[in-house]
Every structure is written in structure tokens, then in C-alpha cells.
Specification:
About 5% of the residues lie in helices and about 50% in strands. It is mostly beta strands.
């Protein structure tokens, strides 16, 4: 139901754009979010957006560098990542919230994509 793409290997300071396609049935009236998980670490919140795309939320570590957006007509959510740092290396997951608002809580999300690897290294 969720298909993420756009990951890859990039040098520090570079950019990547992640995209996630969701089925209309699971996402049209729901908030969506991006999380990431590095090896040996818990899954952590990155960014979220409400169902209309009017409100966005970011973790402190990515605020000012990452931008989340959504296209409700296409049922997609994207994450533009700029000025990437080695500590951004992780598997990135998109998710659909149980609610209309975005959230930083893993438990608030009902559907998860399969993840896409982002590696920031010189």
C-alpha cells in the first residue's frame, strides 16, 4: 500500500528527494510522515504533514534542511533533503497516520512503507 523510492548514496552537503506513493483509500484524509532508523537505533521521527498539507512538523535535527510535502491528487508524499550529513544515514520509512493530523509518535501510524536506504558518505 505504500511504496517509497529515491534513496541512494550521496556525499555530505548533497541532496536527495524521497517519494512515497500511497493508495487513495489509506491516505486521502490522513496525515503522513517520514521516519528513519539507523543500525542499532530505534526508529525516529523525521517529518510529518497533515491531511491537507497545510501543517508540517519536523524533528530538531532536520528542521531547516528537510522539507515534507504532499500531492493529494496523486496520493504521494515527498521529503526533500538538503545539506545532508553523515548522521542522516538510515533507512527512511513513509507512513500513514491514523489521524488527520501529522504526528511524531510511531504508534499514531497505521501503515508503513518498506523503507529506502539513504547513505551519506564521502
Amino acid at each position: 500500500q505504500l511504496q517509497a523510492s529515491g534513496g541512494g548514496l550521496v556525499q555530505p552537503g548533497g541532496s536527495l528527494r524521497l517519494s512515497c506513493a500511497a493508495s487513495r483509500r489509506t491516505s486521502s484524509n490522513n496525515g503522513m510522515g517520514w521516519f528513519r532508523q539507523a543500525p542499532g537505533k530505534e526508529r525516529e521521527f523525521v517529518a510529518a504533514i497533515n491531511w491537507r498539507g497545510e501543517s508540517t512538523y519536523y524533528s530538531g535535527s532536520v528542521k531547516g534542511r528537510f522539507t515534507i510535502s504532499r500531492d493529494r491528487a496523486k496520493n504521494t508524499v515527498s521529503l526533500q533533503m538538503n545539506n545532508l550529513k553523515p548522521e542522516d544515514t538510515a533507512v527512511y520509512y513513509c507512513a500513514v497516520s491514523r489521524y488527520a493530523t501529522g504526528s511524531s509518535q510511531v504508534s499514531h501510524y497505521a501503515y508503513w512503507g518498506q523503507g529506502t536506504q539513504v547513505t551519506v558518505s564521502s
